């Protein structure tokens, strides 16, 4: 087996390696694709100087100017953009780290190991640095995300990564992490996806897993259980997992693997009763326990798994279907795949199915780089191949509201943004899109890049709004034709759910009870799409921005769809006036959207009970210092949880919400704006505070660009409503 010679697993060092020379790193961007390069020769260094944004992202000092002291909100917004515009990359977008989840690097590095693909040295040492920096200070373990408590999932998997990358079992960090893992009971109680990765690495036995039957792919789409009806991320993860599981693919145990087996468990590996591990999940990890019906079905499927593979013709057939779906996903996304989890899994499948010399294998290796991000703590794997479109369209809209777009000095930057939006809009439906259960994508905008190419409802709407805001500026070319704007609207009009709301990538396809079969244990609400106030608002306001410039196109439908969307927003407001947010933290984020929805049809504090209650909820959460701050616990628990410190990002969300709703009192808003201004540095920058984003209720993810886009936006809107008056000395 290749892995026996896996280079870094043999290093086995008790010392931490020396890390890279940060002055040699460069970010390359091409149509939004972000890849970091470590330059080796002095010649290269000369030809490719380090940019300001390289330095900023790497956390190394760079020259930045002290700006005139801002006294009014627009002066502060202007300083903010003075700083931020220097970070715009040459293809027109804003890059940034998109880390947070701590279960992404393991899938990738375990696949490097199994496939015997050497990890480039600069990447190897910088991942080590990242994981050492991100270990929890008190116990040396890792959680499901960077701010989470240590769990078996985070600790066991990242432990394996560091061992693969060359740290010895008696390296101090490994001793500490192992102690934590053992204190949590060892790796037997790792959640399902962890069980999968450890089994794929021959460090767990397949009998310890609940079945992942690829046969589901043979079901007709009429049946709810057909994966084509699940949330797209979930089906795309279980697709390749099913293939590996069904064939029980794993490497021959090497000496290294045998050692890991000793390190990961509190009892001898050979003595573990694997069949009783299927439902053994550590308490520190468990977010969503299995339902009884899930346990029953898993039990039944375990019997099915006893049929010998050779005699199971249905399985053979299902594996063929699976391979075809994987092929389509790889080709349609240029081997990026929808996200980092299926990226690693598909690569592993390709290794077993087509072999290491195949085109597919090579393409996968090439595009791994798109997910890797070099930050001040080392190298991480991003939650997608970036958040390019999303961040870029927000700053366009923020600049529009803060009247920065009109400033002649910023014209080149605005033009660059528009060029990027143009480039990023998806120009096609993928071939045979129905066969691979994809939604239409011609005219849509994705979250990251055109190559990734997945329609997202709110990204499409935000892309549309950004484009409209820029194209109406004097002197700006109309890079995106009317027809292409209509294409975007056409996509949006296909995406409304029966409840009037909008989901993320597709319409809701499956019934809600599918959630009873959620096998992930660590994530909530992942089996189907759901309507979200955030996505619904984005679509609603996107449609109304379009209506303002093309009042005649599909007018009646747009109005009907908007009316129903609004009803959804009203219906989902809670008793206390709040809305629950699903994609950033949390109630302040959802309030910004929902109150925006209401405002878009003229419902404000004064004339609408919904808007008034929404405002009152926010005001009741304002902190002493005038800011707002929520912790990620809000997302986990569904109850507003105050952060000990106000956060500029939450504060900006709340300001935007209250201003949209025409909250009649100025003082709370003035104080909030002052807080944002006081947190601004002399060079216009805002510093990173707590993590901003979330998915699946339980995993947090970083949106470092929000501290620029939403602050500038809030300052701009405040000036529009209350005038650009002096706020501080
Ligand atoms: C994202 C990021 C963007 C996000 C918004 C556009 C903000 C949202 O409004 C709609 C949903 C979407 C597109 C979204 C969905 C889930 C993603 C892709 C992520 C949170 C980024 C990472 C996450 C993905 C599922 C991570 C991989 C983990 C698995 C559980 C498969």
Largest sheet: 2 strands, antiparallel
- Low-pLDDT ranges: none
Strand order of the largest sheet: 1-2
- Measured by DSSP, the beta-strand proportion falls in under 5%
Radius of gyration: 25 Å
EC number: 5.4.99.-
Protein name: Terpene cyclase/mutase family member
GO molecular function: lanosterol synthase activity
Pfam families: SQHop_cyclase_C (PF13243), SQHop_cyclase_N (PF13249)
Summarize the structure.
It holds the Pfam family SQHop_cyclase_C. By secondary structure, the chain is mainly alpha-helical.
Description:
Residues 387-719 form the Squalene cyclase C-terminal domain. Pfam families: SQHop_cyclase_C, SQHop_cyclase_N. One of its GO terms (molecular function) is lanosterol synthase activity. The chain contains 26 helices and 6 strands. It is mainly α. The strands form 3 sheets. A two-stranded antiparallel ribbon has the order 1-2. A hairpin with a 2-residue loop joins strand 3 (372-375) and strand 4 (378-381). The protein is globular. The termini are far apart. The relative contact order is 0.11. The mean pLDDT is 97.
Give me some keywords for this one:
globular; 46% helix; mainly alpha; binds lanosterol; 729 residues; two-stranded antiparallel sheet
Outline the fold blueprint.
Blueprint: E1 25-30, E2 33-38, H1 42-47, H2 52-58, H3 73-85, H4 104-115, H5 121-134, H6 152-164, H7 172-183, H8 192-200, H9 232-246, H10 255-264, H11 292-304, H12 313-332, H13 340-354, H14 359-368, E3 372-375, E4 378-381, H15 388-401, H16 411-424, H17 457-471, H18 482-493, H19 533-549, H20 555-571, H21 587-600, H22 609-621, H23 633-637, H24 648-660, H25 667-679, E5 693-695, E6 699-701, H26 706-722
Antiparallel strand pairs: 1-2, 3-4, 5-6
Helix pairs in contact: 3-26, 4-6, 4-13, 6-7, 9-12, 9-13, 13-14, 15-16, 15-17, 15-26, 16-17, 17-18, 17-19, 19-20, 19-21, 21-22, 21-24, 24-25, 24-26, 25-26
Bound molecules: lanosterol.
